[in-house]
Design goal:
Elements: E1 3-7, H1 11-23, E2 27-31, H2 34-44, E3 48-52, H3 60-70, E4 75-79, H4 84-93, E5 97-100, H5 105-120, E6 129-131, E7 134-137, E8 142-145, E9 148-149, H6 154-164, E10 171-172, H7 173-181, H8 190-203, E11 209-213, E12 217-221
Parallel strand pairs: 1-2, 1-3, 3-4, 4-5
Antiparallel strand pairs: 6-7, 7-8, 8-9, 10-12, 11-12
Helix pairs in contact: 1-5, 2-3, 6-7, 6-8
């Protein structure tokens, strides 16, 4: 039985999330502010944290930063603002995914299950993937560009691996959602865009580039042969 720590200062949201998670067999522990969240984290050692951004005492970003100092527990951020900046900041601090309020509780449960599934699955056999100077080791869940190891969150790793399995092939946003987030994921394709932006930053200018194909999706373009890793084609929006 998995334990989920739900952190939100709105009691009605906590109870709604608790109801739907407990129906699916999860144990739910709640916290109403950032300081209590850290105390509960140490007490219950949760398998995943559902973390609101707007919290008293310590906001969700500070809590996320501190949780990352303490370990690798999966974190699903909640935000009442639809602006991408909140999602980007959360992902940069180490969150695995985000949900924007108001949300469908069934959708949140599906997101929790997808995150847990992705973090629990051990990569099966097969040789590491090599695209130019990018190397992806599925067994170790490690990726590097040349001698530089990429600091990828779980979802970012899965997204990059999906693109690298077929370099040069265009993958639609819907296909990436299904491959990386799972068939039960009810989110929007904008989620893919936010994660691609983070992967691009971490690949840098010396690795393969993720190219946007307008209205369709993305493809991974390896650097031209004989170069140090400059982009073969710039991303276009």
């Amino acid at each position: 039985m998995k334990t989920i720590l739900v952190v939100d200062d709105e009691r009605n949201i906590v109870e709604l999330v608790r109801l739907y998670l407990e129906k699916e067999g999860f144990t739910v522990v709640a916290a109403g502010d950032g300081e209590q969240a850290l105390v509960q984290y140490e007490r219950c050692d949760p398998d995943l944290v559902v973390l609101d951004v707007m919290l008293p005492k310590l906001d969700g970003f500070e809590v996320c930063r501190e949780l990352r100092r303490r370990g690798d527990v999966p974190i699903l951020m909640l935000t009442a603002r639809s602006e991408d900046i909140d999602a980007i900041v959360g992902l940069e601090l180490g969150a695995d995914d985000y949900v924007t309020k108001p949300f469908n509780p069934r959708a949140l449960v599906a997101r929790v299950k997808a995150i847990l599934r992705r973090t629990e699955v051990t990569a099966k056999g097969g040789r590491p993937i090599q695209v130019g100077n990018l190397r992806i080791d599925g067994r170790r869940r490690e990726a590097s560009v040349g001698d530089r190891r990429l600091d990828l969150r779980a979802r970012e790793f899965d997204l990059l691996a999906a693109l690298a399995r077929d370099p040069g092939v265009v993958l639609s946003r819907d296909a990436l959602l299904e491959d990386v987030w799972g068939t039960d994921f009810p989110g929007e394709t904008r989620t893919v865009d936010v994660h691609v932006a983070e992967v691009r930053k971490k690949l840098g200018d010396d690795g393969p580039q993720v190219e946007t194909i307008r209205g369709i999706g993305y493809r991974l373009i390896p650097p031209p042969r004989g170069t140090a890793g400059a982009a073969a084609a710039p991303a276009t929006e």
